[in-house]
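hey
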């Protein structure tokens, strides 16, 4: 067994362990995610890149390949979610496609209705000079709660309701919506969301 294969086997073993722990701890998302990532790293090293890619490139395996790619995408979205909520500066978050048509990941109980998403997506569109956007005059709703717009431009929408608030950031392909509680200052919450958004933009994502 080569050193590369040994490393791959270690990754696969670690991935399997994290998956089992994730199931044991009532489907702990962070552990399940880490297990998936380790398996994705370990399989190509164990099987060899050509064998790994050759298997998924077969025409007879196109459905499995599509499912595998979708799984990769969902892992990426879930990793971004954990980065937001795990920071401690955000207590709830959701990630959508940039048009708000589909939900990629969301905190339990944090839902944004189609009409709320439409208002948010429309807020990124430019308006004539001297005119105010709808969110600036009437505010906007997220998860049934009304927020007053503090900032609205082509990439960001910030809202406030009392001492809590929401940060919305748009990238080329994604829409990040995060809520911070009364115990968190707007600055750290904004920095957490905007840093992730900028990272995704740099990846052309």
């Amino acid at each position: 067994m080569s050193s590369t294969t040994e490393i791959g086997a270690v990754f696969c073993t670690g991935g399997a362990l994290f998956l089992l722990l994730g199931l044991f701890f009532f489907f702990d998302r962070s552990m399940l995610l880490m297990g998936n990532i380790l398996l994705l790293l370990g399989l190509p090293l164990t099987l060899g890149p050509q064998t790994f890619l050759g298997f998924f490139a077969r025409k007879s395996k196109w459905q499995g390949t599509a499912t595998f790619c979708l799984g990769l995408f969902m892992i990426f979205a879930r990793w971004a979610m954990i980065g937001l909520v795990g920071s401690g500066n955000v207590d709830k978050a959701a990630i959508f496609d940039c048009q708000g048509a589909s939900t990629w990941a969301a905190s339990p109980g944090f839902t944004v209705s189609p009409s709320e998403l439409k208002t948010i997506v429309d807020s990124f569109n430019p308006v004539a000079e001297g005119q105010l956007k709808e969110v600036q005059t009437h505010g906007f709703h997220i998860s049934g709660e009304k927020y007053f717009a503090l900032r609205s431009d082509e990439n960001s929408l910030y809202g406030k309701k009392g001492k809590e608030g929401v940060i919305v950031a748009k990238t080329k392909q994604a829409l990040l919506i995060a809520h911070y509680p009364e115990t968190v200052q707007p600055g750290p919450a904004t920095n957490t969301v905007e840093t992730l958004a900028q990272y995704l933009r740099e990846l052309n994502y």
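The two ends are 38 Å apart (CA to CA). Residues 95 and 176 are 5 Å apart (CA to CA).
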